[in-house]
Automatic annotation (TrEMBL):
<dbReference type="InterPro" id="IPR029062">
    <property type="entry name" value="Class_I_gatase-like"/>
</dbReference>
<feature type="domain" description="DJ-1/PfpI">
    <location>
        <begin position="11"/>
        <end position="184"/>
    </location>
</feature>
<protein>
    <submittedName>
        <fullName>DJ-1/PfpI family protein</fullName>
    </submittedName>
</protein>
<dbReference type="InterPro" id="IPR002818">
    <property type="entry name" value="DJ-1/PfpI"/>
</dbReference>
<dbReference type="InterPro" id="IPR052158">
    <property type="entry name" value="INH-QAR"/>
</dbReference>
<dbReference type="Pfam" id="PF01965">
    <property type="entry name" value="DJ-1_PfpI"/>
</dbReference>
Amino acid sequence: MKDVENVKAMNIAFLVYDQVEVLDLNGPLDVFVKANALYPGSYHCYTVGKTKDPVYVEANTMAIVPTYDLQNCLKPDMIVVPGTNPEYIMKYLQDNDFQNTVLKWVKEAYDSGAVVFTVCTGCMLLSNTGILNNHDITTHSMLLDALEKHNPESTVKRGVRYVDQGQLITTAGITAGIDAALYLIGKHQGQEAVDTIVELFEYQYTDSDK
């Protein structure tokens, strides 16, 4: 294992909102939590909501209570933006309050240097922010055409699991978020860390953005 003594932990904020896709959220979250167990002090993971009120998910069968709200959260080095059902995505794109609070916060963090990592339809959620402009991007196969229509200044990639543009990482559908998180762990910690987490997950990993 690498020596992480005196290395500042990366603050990773996981955005939660009403009807967020839980596997989009928990897949990458568990990867980073496992990596922090292997390399203590490397990753500080937490959830952020518009408020600290519970957000309801999975057809209202469960609720998530955010660790922080937008006003009191720690400054993130990375924001993970999970997706939701396409029907909800389209509603959020028309929701001025959501755009001017939650997504404004994401954009301001991005402009300040934070990495933005979208999972599945989370990419589509950012269509009005300008974050996606002039980048190669991807999303769930169901929304590729819509993503292209809403982001004419971007290049939509098809048939890939994830796309790394440096400060912006986007993924295909749901489980692709796990692949991209493992890829990022590989960049940070090396292949041994990835292999260990994959073994713990008993996961069939796709190590490719091609």
